[in-house]
Amino acid sequence: MCNLYRLKNSNEEVAQLFDAKVGEVGNAGRGEVHPGYPDIVLVNGALRSMVWGFPFKSRDSKPGSKPKPVNNARSDKLDSFMWRFSFQERRCLIPVSAFAEAEGEKGAKTRTWFSLPGQEVFAVAGIWRDTPEWGPAYTMIMTEACIHVADVHDRMPVILKRQDWRDWLDGPPDAANLLCRPYPDLMVCDRTTDSWVRRSATAAG
How many CB atoms lie within 10 A of CB 57? Predict the structure, then answer.
């Protein structure tokens, strides 16, 4: 599952690429994004800052404990209670320059990045909702891995081609569901020696 991505371009550049307005973005945008941290998504024709991950607390959580961000939603589980209404009513586009998967032995995992050739920014399928804990929050839709990702992880984000953006945002659920498929075209795989565990900034909550 995807627990790290990055966005290199400025909010203004992303807005131009997505033919959108720059809305309430705050300090979000440009850099590495981790679960529980804010970044920008496209909703209703504007870029908007939201926290990556729906807040969730299990039944056996200790009193006073903070919720954890559920930042991935499986495409074959979108009819579950946690995702159903957001999928039906509140879909968004997540601007991404590259996403990473952890690769290697436990305790020594490194970052392997995946991007699209010739595209500075591409769109990943997302859903969102307002939350009492963190305000607006989004999650990333995951599907089976394509051939370029499969030897690193068995799942990958749903990457949407430009001609499919409108169907994802505004189409009926059955049409949007058809878009949840492995990316069919060429991808770039960049294996690095960078340690997987490396964080900064301030998480939600």
Answer: 12
Q: Are 69 and 127 contacting, i.e. CB atoms less than 8 angstroms apart?
A: no
**Model pLDDT, residue 25:** 86
In whole angstroms, how far apart are CA 135 and each of 108, 164, 189, 205? 35, 28, 34, 10
Q: What is the pTM of this model?
A: 0.93
Q: Where are the alpha helices (DSSP H) in 23-129?
A: 81-89
Nearest-angstrom CA–CA distance, 118 and 163: 17
Residue 26 structure tokens: 């705050």
CB 124 within 8 A of CB 158: yes
Tokens of 37: 């941290």
For 36-49, what is each residue's pLDDT tens digit?
A: 999 999 999 999 99
pLDDT at position 60 over 90: no
Lowest-confidence range among 81-85, 98-102, 105-109, 164-168? 105-109
CA dist., res. 70 & res. 92, Å (int): 16
- Spatial contact of 93 and 42, defined as CB atoms under 8 Å apart: yes
Q: What phi, psi does 173 have (nearest 5°)? A: -55, -35
- CA–chain centroid gap for 124, Å, is 6
Smallest CA-to-CA distance from 155 within 121, 129, 118, 180 is with 180
Residue type, 15: A
| Structure tokens belonging to residue 122 | 């591409």
Q: Which two tokens stand for residue 142?
A: 């995951």
Residue from 18, 115, 129 nearest 73 by CA: 129
